Amino acid sequence: MRSCLFFCLVAAALFPSTEASAQTVLKSGKIVRVSVFAAGNYAFRILLNVPVPECVDGFFYVDATDPNYQVYTAGLLAAASTNRSIQVQAVLQSGFCRIANYNIEF
């Protein structure tokens, strides 16, 4: 029994679950800043009116290589220009928050 417990603990430490490793961040607020950078450099960034300490520099991003990049950016720009609240769900990757999906509140 002890050896099984030891083995299981060692295996869990050496082979962590992908699901457990992928951390998500969920925040709601209004977009107060949109920044655009070169592809591969967190190309389209938004900053909310609420603190996001989980993310480096507090921003969420969509990169130009993301599927549906144009749809993501168009929706976020629409939300920003109409001052709508959004709810963002992002995946934490090396400290940066990559947008997985979002909702615009009407």
Secondary-structure map with pairings?
Blueprint: H1 2-14, H2 18-21, E1 24-36, E2 44-48, E3 59-62, H3 69-81, E4 85-93, E5 96-104
Parallel strand pairs: 3-5
Antiparallel strand pairs: 1-2, 1-4, 2-3, 4-5
Number of helices: 3
Task: Provide the residue-averaged pLDDT.
Answer: 85
Structural class estimated from helices and strands: alpha+beta
Give the overall form: globular
The portion of residues forming beta strands comes to: 35-45%
Helical residues, percent: 25-40%
Report the uncertain regions: 1-20
- Gap between N and C termini: 57 Å
Kindly state the number of beta strands: 5
- Largest sheet features: 5 strands, mixed, barrel
